[in-house]
Amino acid sequence: QFLYFIGCEKTNAIHPTQMRRAVACSVARVCGAARAGSQAFGAVAMGPADPILGLSVAYNNDPSPSKVNLGVGVYRDDKGLPFVLPSVRRAEIRVNEQGLDHEYAPISGLAGFVTKAQKLAFGDDAAVLGDKRVASSQTLSGTGALRVAGEFLNRFLANKTIVVPNPTWGNHIPVFKDAGLTVEKYRYFDPKTNGVDFAGMIADLEKLPEGTIVLLHACAHNPTGNDPTQEQWRTIVDTVKQRKLFPLVD
User: Fold this and answer.
1) Residue 45 lies in a domain
2) Which of 39, 71, 86, 150 places its Cα 20 to 30 Å from the Cα of 242?
3) Where is the Aminotransferase class I/classII large domain (predicted)?
4) So what's the pLDDT on residue 67?
5) Same domain, 150 and 244
6) In a shared domain, residues 122 and 207
7) Which segments of the chain does DSSP mark as H helices, in order?
């Protein structure tokens, strides 16, 4: 009512006292709704602190002059200040000089970006691209892509179970659980060798039921940093195909 009242063509004819009363009434209604909302959400528990961002807080509070922040994956200069790559600055200028509008992007994303992403992932001359056997959609960063993938697979696959490497990125498990999938783990890291437990990984994959979703880290496994060799990747691909599993590559 308040917004409509102000937008009325006859606003200038309204007495100031009436205007103040209308504003006061609207504010009272908003405050009342806020109080009701606070009661409705009073039982909401605080979520767990993010361990990586928590490290940043601890770093900022640490008075040590020799501290080094190796937590969040961002660039810093020698003074510990944010550093933007010169190539990124040049790209920003090039984009800005194009005078692009701010219209809504298509539902599946910007066509040019999607096409370049396909070629980056599969190669410029990949047969799957030439045969138009790849469907792509632009999403909101990595976590957004995982959530969209989880929701899509939960809706259209018969098998609702996804197996992730042990360990895996902290976001994987809650994202897939919130998407309705059942999350299990397969062996990946061997603490005795600080390397990939490849034999254990393959043994676990060979036991999975047909149609199980298998999450694979494409490179720079998070958090161990250990990746399979090229030969091991071939074995992984063969195992996934033989067991008729559904690979999801992050």
Assistant:
1) no
2) 150
3) 66-250
4) 86
5) yes
6) no
7) 2-7, 16-40, 51-61, 86-97, 111-122, 127-130, 141-156, 172-178, 198-206, 230-243
Q: Is residue 11 part of a domain?
A: yes
pLDDT number for residue 39:
80
Nearest CA among 211, 197, 193, 205 for reference residue 239: 205
- Tell me the whole-structure pTM to 2 decimals: 0.75
Residue 6, pLDDT score: 41
Whole-angstrom Cα distance, residue 7 to residue 44? 37
Distance (Å, whole) CA 100 – CA 44: 42
If asked whether residues 223 and 145 sit together in one domain, one would say yes
What is the per-residue pLDDT for 80?
81
In a domain, residue 72? The reply is no
10-residue averages of pLDDT along the chain (250 residues): 41 60 65 66 85 82 87 83 95 93 91 95 94 95 95 97 96 97 98 97 98 97 96 98 98
Domain holding 241: CATH number? 3.40.640.10
Residue 42: the pLDDT is: 86
Do 150 and 164 touch, CB atoms closer than 8 A?
Answer: no
Domain residues for the domain of 207 are 139-249
The verdict on residue 62 lying in a domain is: no
Please count the structural domains in the chain.
3
What whole-number distance in Å separates Cα of residue 59 and Cα of residue 55? 6
